[in-house]
Amino acid sequence: MSRTPSSKIALVTGGSSGIGKAIAERLTAGGVKVIVADIAAANTEEEGIIYRKCDVSSSEDIDQLYTFLEKNYRQPDILILNAGQGIREKLTEGDPEKWQHIIQTNLMGTLRCIRAFTPAMLEKKRGNVVFISSVSANQPHPYGGIYSATKTALEVIAETLRQESLPHLNVTVISPGIVDTEFFKNEISGDIKIEEMGMGAISPAEIAEDVWYALNRKKGTSINKIITRPVLQNF
In whole angstroms, what is the distance from residue 188 CA to residue 200 CA? Predict the structure, then answer.
């Protein structure tokens, strides 16, 4: 497979569906070469997007992804940290093994990707890292403690990375409200439907546009956080 030195390369974790897929499609439409790393992805190419099966909670999978990029392309110019899963469980009754899975995916998976893919950006003295967080960060609520804790930690990690990588990396946190995806359906122990919440939902494409906006600021400026909600959302 030939390397592509001219166009930018983006790595999108969790990009086979929902927000991640919308971001991958928006980047591709903008001329960016996209590699999607997702536990649900086959090793195929679709509409200019390369899909690689990868579990971000696995150090071995991350190592293999790094090697694949190094051999066939190069390390990414843009890193979109989107992979994650929700969970709704009461802290006094829930399953700690399930909590560990969420922490390994949402938090440790993100940290593994940072450790693997940002050093090459720092060596080049340029790069963009985008964290897909949630309005649930810093918002404790019943049955949402584990998920909110991972997203709160994620935003602390993002700000730490920004400070540690100045002035070379642009670090952005995107915090969506309710988005019309399969997120709630795929939650562990979750039983909420978007329609039942009665606050509407925004489309994944709207979040993808937020990402595109943040990536395309003029040199010397950096968008560090964007929050986008349906107008009816009260949290």
Answer: 22
Structure tokens belonging to residue 152 = 């709160």
| Averaged pLDDT, groups of 10, the chain, 235 residues long | 64 94 96 95 82 96 97 97 93 95 97 98 97 94 94 98 97 94 62 70 95 93 95 87
Tell how many helices (H) and how many strands (E) occur in the chain.
Answer: 8, 8
Order of strands across the sheet that contains 169-176: 45-46, 49-53, 33-38, 9-13, 78-81, 127-132, 169-176, 225-228
The SS3 assignment for 75 reads coil
Helix (H) or strand (E) holding 22: helix 18-29
Question: 82 and 69 in contact (C-beta within 8 Å)?
Answer: no
Which residues are tagged catalytic?
A: 147
Q: Which two tokens stand for residue 199?
A: 């606050």
